C-alpha cells in the first residue's frame, strides 16, 4: 500500500493576485510578486509581514532572491529589471531589459548571471559583475517566452517554455538552441528540471496537460491528465518523490514521480492558482493564487 500524502497548511496571507513566489534558501522568508505592482516579504514561520514595497504601477510577474548578494531582483510589465537590497529596500540598480512584459527571471547558482525572458520573444543573459552588461541574447522562439529553468545537473544549460507551443534547450555561450521539444497542442507556460536520478524535464500547458520529457533522448515519456484548465506553474519536490502542478482550474495537484499517480488535490478557494515554489532541504511548499499566498508542509505517512 502506498504511503499517504499528508498536507498541512502553515500560513495564509490574502493579497492582490500573486504572480510569482520565491523562498530564501536559508531563512524562513517568502517573496511574493503581485499583479498590483507590489512585492511582499513574509516570514512564513512567524506569519509576520517583514517588508512590502511598490515596484511600479504595473504587474510584477517575477521576483527572485539572490541570497549571496542580499538582493531581490524583480521583473515587471514596464520592461524594467530592478535590484533591491532586501533588508534596507534600497534600489541598487534598474534598467530597461526587454521590449515587452518581463515574464521570468532565473538566477545562475554559481556565476554572476541572471537570465530573463519576455513577451519580446527573446531570452537575455545579464552579468552583474560587469555593471549588468548584456552578455548574450537567445533568439529562436516565435512567441512570448513564459518561463526559463537552469539545469541543476549542468548549470551552463537551461530550458525555455513559450506560447509557440515548444520547449527549447540552450547552452550559455551558444547562439542557437540545442534542440526543441514539441508535443503540446497549445501554449507552454512553465517547466522544471528534475534533480533526481533521471534526465527529466516537466512542462505545463494551456492544453491542460503536464508532460514529462527525457531531455537526453528528447522524447515525452509520460503525460499527466486531470487539470481542467491551463497549467500555470510546475515543480519537482526536492525532498519527496512528487511533481506539483498549479492550474487556472484553481487546484494544485500532487503526482507521484515514479508511478505518475495523482496523490492529492488542493483547492483553497482563493481563485486561480498561478505559482508553486519548493525549497531545497525542506518539505515546505509555497503557492500563489488570485487572492493570496499559502505555504504548506508535506509529509509522507
UniProtKB/TrEMBL annotation:
InterPro entries, per the entry: Coatomer_complex_subunit (IPR050844), WD40/YVTN_repeat-like_dom_sf (IPR015943), WD40_PAC1 (IPR020472), WD40_repeat_CS (IPR019775), WD40_repeat_dom_sf (IPR036322), WD40_rpt (IPR001680)
Q: Where in the cell is it found?
A: Cytoplasmic vesicle, COPI-coated vesicle membrane
User: Which Gene3D superfamilies does this one have?
Assistant: YVTN repeat-like/Quinoprotein amine dehydrogenase (2.130.10.10)
Primary site of residence:
membrane
Q: Per UniProt, what is the membrane topology? A: Peripheral membrane protein
Superkingdom assignment: Eukaryota
Repeat (WD) residue spans along the chain: 11-52, 95-127, 138-180, 181-223, 224-265
Q: Does the keyword Transport apply?
A: no
A Pfam short name: WD40
Q: Which SMART domains match?
A: WD40 (SM00320)
From its record, what is one biological process in GO terms? intracellular protein transport
Q: Does the keyword Repeat apply?
A: yes
GO cellular component annotations of the record = COPI vesicle coat
Keywords of the record:
Repeat, WD repeat
- CDD domains hit by this protein: WD40 (cd00200)
Role: The coatomer is a cytosolic protein complex that binds to dilysine motifs and reversibly associates with Golgi non-clathrin-coated vesicles, which further mediate biosynthetic protein transport from the ER, via the Golgi up to the trans Golgi network. Coatomer complex is required for budding from Golgi membranes, and is essential for the retrograde Golgi-to-ER transport of dilysine-tagged proteins.
Protein name, entry field: Beta'-coat protein
Amino acid at each position: 500500500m502506498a504511503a499517504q500524502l499528508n498536507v498541512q497548511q502553515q500560513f495564509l496571507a490574502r493579497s492582490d493576485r500573486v504572480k510569482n513566489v520565491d523562498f530564501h534558501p536559508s531563512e524562513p522568508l517568502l517573496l511574493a510578486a503581485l499583479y498590483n505592482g507590489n512585492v511582499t516579504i513574509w516570514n512564513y514561520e512567524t506569519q509576520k509581514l517583514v517588508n512590502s514595497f511598490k515596484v511600479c504601477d504595473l504587474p510584477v510577474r517575477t521576483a527572485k532572491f539572490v541570497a549571496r548578494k542580499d538582493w531581490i531582483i524583480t521583473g515587471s510589465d514596464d520592461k524594467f529589471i530592478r535590484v533591491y537590497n532586501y533588508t534596507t529596500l534600497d534600489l541598487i540598480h534598474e534598467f530597461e531589459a526587454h521590449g515587452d512584459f518581463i515574464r521570468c527571471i532565473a538566477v545562475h547558482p554559481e556565476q554572476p548571471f541572471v537570465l530573463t525572458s519576455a513577451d519580446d520573444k527573446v531570452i537575455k543573459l545579464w552579468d552583474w559583475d560587469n555593471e549588468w552588461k548584456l552578455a548574450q541574447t537567445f533568439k529562436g522562439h516565435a512567441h512570448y517566452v513564459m518561463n526559463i529553468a537552469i539545469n541543476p545537473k549542468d548549470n551552463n544549460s537551461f530550458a525555455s517554455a513559450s506560447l509557440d507551443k515548444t520547449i527549447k534547450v540552450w547552452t550559455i555561450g551558444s547562439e542557437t538552441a540545442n534542440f526543441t521539444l514539441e508535443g503540446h497542442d497549445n501554449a507552454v507556460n512553465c517547466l522544471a528540471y528534475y534533480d533526481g536520478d533521471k534526465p527529466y524535464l516537466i512542462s505545463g500547458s494551456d492544453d491542460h496537460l503536464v508532460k514529462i520529457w527525457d531531455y537526453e533522448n528528447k522524447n515525452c515519456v509520460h503525460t499527466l491528465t486531470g487539470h481542467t484548465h491551463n497549467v500555470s506553474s510546475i515543480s519537482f519536490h526536492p525532498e519527496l518523490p512528487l511533481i506539483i502542478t498549479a492550474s487556472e482550474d484553481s487546484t494544485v495537484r500532487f503526482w507521484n514521480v515514479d508511478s505518475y499517480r495523482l496523490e492529492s488535490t488542493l483547492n483553497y478557494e482563493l481563485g486561480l492558482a498561478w505559482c508553486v515554489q519548493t525549497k531545497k532541504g525542506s518539505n515546505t511548499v509555497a503557492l500563489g493564487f488570485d487572492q493570496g499566498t499559502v505555504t504548506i508542509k508535506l509529509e509522507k505517512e
